[in-house]
Amino acid sequence: MPMKPYAFFIGCQIPARLQQYEVSARAVLERLDVELKDFRQFNCCGYPMRNADEKAFLLSAAKNIALAERAGLDILTLCKCCFGSLKAADHLLKEDHEKRKEINRHLTSHKLAYGGTVQIKHLLSVLFHDIGVDTVGQAVTRPFKGLKIAAQNGCHALRPSRVTRFDDPLAPVMFDRLIKLTGAESVDWQMRLECCGAPLIGVNDGLSASLMQRKIDDAETAGARYLCTACPYCQLQFDAVQETTISGRGKTHMLPSILFPQLLGVSMGVPKIKLGFEMNRLDISGVDSFLKEE
């Protein structure tokens, strides 16, 4: 029986600054026979207003959820920030009847209503739970050998766990298990759950760079050859910001970061051009050298 399509929510950062995430995710999901429905009416997830104007935040998020609900589709998002934001709004609206009534009054002008009947899912949870590890594993035709990866779990999907219900916030396993399906080894590193430093860019750039560098150093100490992300902010931090920051200090050695659908896609035999390899700031083409000989 074919899987039900998903309402595809790519958010703001990905189409503007990280198109390779969308490109690689679409390529991988197509190989896995997952249908994505694009909604031109989707707007911002509401996160920028979350701590400034709760009503604006809830209305923005609820509109997206209501659009998917009207189509009878669950939401699949690539961005962990969008995932956390939509999950938070969904949780608040289910818990607070008065807020829900107020938001629905505003949604009537769009001929929409929030009913709380759709699920909000991240790419990793769709791969792990909905498609399933067996199916994803069977799609891997060119597994890696000897490739050590440091999985960057990110923050927004893990916490608060009672709202996101994504993975164990203190001992997450989903990302590690998905990486292992490609044949790569997900290394155990001490700072795996620490912030990448991205939220501090523009506020305290020095501290942001310090947090990033500490994680990079720790991942290298654990033997990782690449970082691996499934969050646009983490990827931008470890790719574009790492290149700018470290080259500005006169350093030449960097630890490249690869998006998970890029890593998975290569192991599935998807051509690199369809995975957006050339869009990464740091060269990740070397992962090819770890593929098992056919």
Tally of distinct domains: 2
Q: How do the strands line up in the largest sheet? A: 2-1-3-4
Count of distinct strands: 8
Q: Determine and state the CATH class of the largest domain.
A: Alpha Beta
Looking at the overall shape, the CATH architecture of the largest domain is 3-Layer(aba) Sandwich
**Mean pLDDT over the residues:** 96
Over all CA atoms, what is the radius of gyration? 19 Å
Beta percentage is 5-15%
User: According to CATH, what is the topology of the largest domain?
Assistant: Rossmann fold
Termini separation comes to 32 Å
Largest sheet: 4 strands, parallel
Low-confidence stretches: none
How many helices? The count is: 11
**Strand and helix order:** EHHEHEHHEHEHHEHEHEH
Q: Note the overall shape.
A: globular
Percent helix, as a range, is 40-55%
Helix-strand makeup class: alpha/beta
Question: What does this protein structure show overall?
Answer:
Helices cover 46% and strands 9% of the residues. The protein is an alpha/beta fold and 294 residues long. It folds into two domains: 6-122, Glutathione S-transferase Yfyf (Class Pi), Chain A, domain 2; 141-290, 3-Layer(aba) Sandwich (Rossmann fold), CATH 3.40.50.11810. The strands form two sheets. The protein has a four-stranded parallel sheet with strand order 2-1-3-4. It has a four-stranded parallel sheet with strand order 6-5-7-8, with helices on both faces. The longest helix is centred in the first third of the chain and has 18 residues, at 54-71.
